[in-house]
User: Fold this.
Amino acid sequence: MGIHCIKIEMAVKKMGVFFEKREYSKPVRRWHTLVLILMIVLFVIAIFYDFSLHILKYSYLLAGLSSFIDGIEGYIRRNEWKRRFLIDFAFTFLWFFMFFTLKIN
Assistant:
């Protein structure tokens, strides 16, 4: 049982890039709370409109803006890893790519 726990602990350390505890400034925390509330509202509205992609598309935009703000804050603080900074901007690109390429008839 001890070896199994060590393997799990090593796997969790490898995933630390995505699940690390980060300290955010107050404006960024407020931004994340606002984005979370807006995304929940968008999903509720989408449920009432039969999961309309017109509405769900904007959740990609909000997620992209949130990742962009995370990347900017990481760049300003400069105490975070460069790798984390690049991952934030990679996710920003991914969310914006999904937002702009989603074709809705």
